[in-house]
Amino acid sequence: MRKVAKLSFLIAVLFLFSSGDTYAGFGVPKIGGKNGDGGGVSKADALKQQDQLLRSYTEVSLKITESQILLSQAFGLKDAAKKLEVERNALASGNVMSKDEIKKQRAVSEEAQASIDAKLEEGELISAESKKLYRQSLDPYFEGVLLTKDVVSEAERTLSGAKTVIENANPMEIAKLKKEFDITLFLAPKVSPDLSKMVSTGSRLVTYGNNQNIEVPKNATGTLGDL
After folding, report:
1. Residue 73 near residue 41, CB atoms below 8 Å
2. 54: closest CA among 155, 153, 144, 146?
3. What DSSP string runs through 19-32?
4. pTM of the model
5. 58 alpha-carbon distance from chain centroid
6. What is the pLDDT of residues 154-188, one digit of tens each?
7. What is the DSSP annotation of 162-210?
8. What whole-number distance in Å separates Cα of residue 28 and Cα of residue 19?
9. Angle at which helices 43-74 and 99-122 pack, to 10 degrees?
10. Exposure b/e, 120-156, CB count within 10 A at least 16 = b
């Protein structure tokens, strides 16, 4: 009887120590994930996704900012054009690398876009020189729209990866991880709404251009229709 009891005890101990989901078999989750693997997404991979999202966002922002500069010049919005030029230079030099820098860049862009939208709504005639600037602004704008379409799915994947790492982390690590992933947590949810706004603005740009007898890129309408 004692032999049977000892054998049962040894089997139970071996089972506990062989469990892959616990630390030393005593039911304590491994550091870094409830299942020990971060839910299938490593922190390193999630941070790489964040870096790529930032690069993609920068590429889009350069296109849109260039367009906004030309539109601001076309509509005589000199102050807006100057502020946008500063942000364009920062983007081009890779200096927009933090959440706060992104927020600043977005604030300048949104302020300029509001002024541009007001001019489009007014529908006033512009000079021949302004029409040239307006036409030049359309190519980078619609290139930016197309790029943003691809970034939407990238942002969703990146956000999902960051959330998985955070949700599966040791509770003591969560605050630190949220700081490390602050760009993803701030930026990724904004990409899809950004695309919707860009499509709406694109439609107004096409309408204004047609009303002013300004040549609109051939693929502009098709680009908007595909989104």
Report:
1. no
2. 155
3. -TTSBTTTTBPPTT
4. 0.80
5. 9
6. 999 999 999 999 999 999 999 999 999 999 999 99
7. HHHHHHTS-GGGHHHHHHHTHHHHHHHHHHHHHHHHHHHHHHHHHHHHH
8. 11
9. 30
10. beeeeebeeebbebbbbbbbbbbbbbebbbebbebbe
- Give, as one character, the DSSP assignment of residue 38: G
Of the candidates 63, 68, 60, 145, the residue with the CA atom closest to the CA atom of residue 112:
68
Check pLDDT > 90 for residue 139.
Answer: yes
Indicate the pLDDT class of residue 220, thresholds 50, 70 and 90.
Answer: confident
Does pLDDT of 6 surpass 60?
no
Structure token pair of residue 123 = 């529908």
Distance CA 187, CA 53 (A): 9
**CA separation for the pair 40, 145 (Å, rounded):** 32
126 DSSP assignment: -
| 202/19: higher pLDDT | 202
The CA distances from residue 60 to 1, 125, 142, 149, 164, in Å, are 75, 29, 10, 10, 26
